[in-house]
Amino acid sequence: SLQEKKIFAVQGPYPIIRRLLWARGWVERKLPRADRQLKQRLGSREKRRLETEQSGDGAEQGEAVLNPCGGAQPSLGTTEPLHYPWPHHEEEEQEEEEEDEDNEDPDGIHDFMSFLVRDQVPNFLWTIHLGTIDRELLRKIKVVNRYPSVHALSTKEGLCLNLQNLPWFEQADPNTFFPRCYRLGIMEEQEAFIEDFRLTAARSLLKLALEKAGDKLVGTEQPPKSNTGPATSHPMPSTEGPEIPLSPQLVEEALEVCEQHLDVLGHQDIDRKTPSPCRTCIDWDHFLQGYYRVAHEGARLTLSGAQRERCQSLLQRLAEQLPQLSMEGNLNIWILKPGAKSRGRGKAGGSRGCTQAPHRGRVSPSLCSPGIVCATRLEEVLQLAQGCTTPLGRVCEWVVQKYMERLLTIFGTKFDIRQWFMVTDGNPLTVWFYRDCYLRFCSQPFSLRHLEHSRHLCNVSVQKKYRTLPHQDPRVPPEGIWSSKQFQAHLARLGRADAWHQVMVPGMKAAILNSLRCTQDHMGFRKGSFELYGADFLIGEDYRPWLLEINSCPTMSPSSTVTRQLCANVQRDTLRLVLDRKDNPRCSIGAFELIYKGAAVPPCMTMGLNLMVEGCSLKKP
Questions:
Q1: pLDDT tens-place string over residues 295-318
Q2: Dihedral through CA 352, CA 358, CA 359, CA 360, nearest 10?
């Protein structure tokens, strides 16, 4: 093993990786866990304190740290750039129970071999936390499963920021695959969100007015239901409300706003010196209160024949300009997420007290509850934003994203897709797509009238806290997971067998590549290394995929029968691709397929440049 340079180290609960490398004749240099060494030196009081701290977020504690002299040492932090937080965003697995390594090595042979190579530098490292590895040693390891800096791609705020610049890299519009998103801690983006919320409310009022009048806008009808179960489920607000309808002026104001917005989209305001008319043309506070009554309390509206025609015409013209009009619905729901955490973690509201106003006819989100929250009122979002508005130099804590109200469901239940892909080189950018993926279901039926996590967050770590209710459709998988093959069979029963290969897979590949292209310059790559990612997608009613986020270090802990097999397969195929293929380019790489390999780009000089502009003035003839 020493001569063949087959020494590896595994940091974290990856028994599959360990067994696969053993089978290849590799020897493990085992890593002592830093927390065990610390506990041996601490008294009982300090030991209890350490255990208490670790129980809060195990992903940040108890990691072995390699150092050049062997053994382990506590992590002393990182010197990564300050514009992105160090890696709270990763979908780490420390909360999952680690398998007993003693059961994997009953004869102790691997322990003995590990002892023999205890002072050797590993040639291959598979780790959860790259920041805990000594940088001097890291430079000596040839193959590592992590890149030094991927925050631009794998944090919600990093993706939100960089996708705004996509048109500079590709002829692509991020609004066609990524729900519009804003960083609340940046004042300019907070103001843009406020304008977006108001404009969405105006469009939503026109949709509600048409629905209450019995009309449907062309292109927004729900797909037909099938005998195998409902393809979509969108419970709407109760029509019970005040007997006296709201003033027709509310519809007139919404029409005026949408007409002004169309002028802006058509660049007809390019020479206007006054502020955006969408911000000043009506009393927005009064308008939003009226909209809330219609959308959430069932207040009635009356439409004249002329107004009905204007509503239809305006919405159809807006649909040509706004790619997200068909999926945004009419309740103006937005989802607030911690900008750099995964699995629904985070603390909303910081240290502020909980100030919750009652809202009739729906569940109000608590701005003091942990993790992701949904909100339908502007003041709720801004209340949270007050605690994280910062100067441009500091990372903001929260992002707000338009919630997909019109999405594809299965048996009336929301689901998302976890899609793996791998980057094996940054220059030239080389991307591999994994053909197998899986679906994650919520544990309760989808409803826009109830905003609980059990109905709206598909994360396994969230849904495992809830039990399936009796009124849940019995066809929803008990473990909450489907393979992509099961999903394709379901689509075939709906008569849309073509949607997977013709719409969803190409859309997911395009979204992944577009995200990588606009973040590539902000990521740190190293030759010989690689990284596996997990992208999360929702599917619209038209079967188009919408990217939600990209996770570095996606979980490999099996949560179901389906993921037990799929996670083992993707780990097996990863080693085939990054190790076996170097010696045998024709070896099997399983379900991975190469979807992009760009041209190599010469390294840019970042220092010592002497920039100068030379020229002469033009003279009139």
A1: 999 888 888 889 999 999 999 999
A2: 170
Name the band, by pLDDT with cuts 50, 70 and 90, for residue 591.
very high
Quote the pTM value.
0.81
Query: Rounded to whole angstroms, how far apart are CA atoms 237 and 300?
Result: 12
Angle at 401 between CA 396 and CA 403, to 5 degrees: 155
Q: Is the pLDDT of residue 79 over 70?
A: no
pLDDT of residue 418: 98
Residue type for position 184: L
- Strand partners for 528: none
Residue 552 tokens read as 């570095």
Question: Beta 545-552 vs 531-539: how paired, if at all?
Answer: antiparallel
Bridge partners, residue 239, by sequence: none
Residue, of 506 and 275, whose pLDDT is higher: 506
Distant-in-sequence, close-in-space partners of 86: CB < 8 Å, separation ≥ 6 = 78, 80, 131
Q: How far apart are CA 216 and CA 218, in angstroms?
A: 6
Separation CA 463–CA 486 (nearest Å):
20
- Reported as a single tens digit per residue, the pLDDT across 374-417 is 999 999 998 877 755 444 434 457 899 999 999 999 999 999 99
Cβ-contact 336, 402 below 8 angstroms: no
512: nearest Cα among 533, 485, 541, 488: 533
Cβ atoms 294, 253 nearer than 8 A: no
Q: Are 85 and 155 a contacting pair, CB within 8 Å?
A: yes
- List of residues 6+ apart from 503 with CB closer than 8 A: 542, 543, 544, 545
Question: How far apart are the C-alpha atoms of 23 and 38, rounded to whole Å?
Answer: 33
Number of C-beta neighbours around residue 58 at 10 A: 16
- Radius of gyration for the alpha carbons in the chain, expressed in angstroms and rounded: 27
The three-state secondary structure class of 587 is: coil
Closest CA to 72 of 36, 39, 40, 98: 36
Beta strands in 369-445 (DSSP E): 373-375, 398-402, 415-426, 429-434, 438-441
Homologous superfamily assigned to 152-178+406-597: ATP-grasp fold, B domain (3.30.470.20)
What b/e sequence results for 283-298 when a residue is b if at least 16 CB atoms lie within 10 Å of its CB, and e otherwise? ebeebbebbbbbbbbb
Please give the C-alpha separations between residue 397 and each of 198, 350, 354, in angstroms, as whole numbers.
23, 10, 18
144, β-bridge pairs: 125
Domain ranges within the chain, ordered by starting residue: 1-45+107-144, 152-178+406-597, 180-214+245-343+370-403
CB 251: neighbour CB atoms within 10 A? 25
Cβ–Cβ < 8 Å for 493, 485: no
Euclidean distance between the first and final Cα of the chain, in Å? 80
- Per cent of the chain over pLDDT 90 is 53
- pLDDT confidence of residue 334: 97
From residue 582, give the alpha-carbon distance in Å to each of 298, 576, 585, 588: 64, 9, 6, 12
Residue with tokens 């619905």: 329
What's the chain's length in residues?
A: 621
d(CA 407, CA 327): 7
CA distance 8 to 28: 5
Residue 184's CB: how many other CB atoms inside 10 A?
25
What is the structure's pLDDT at 277?
63
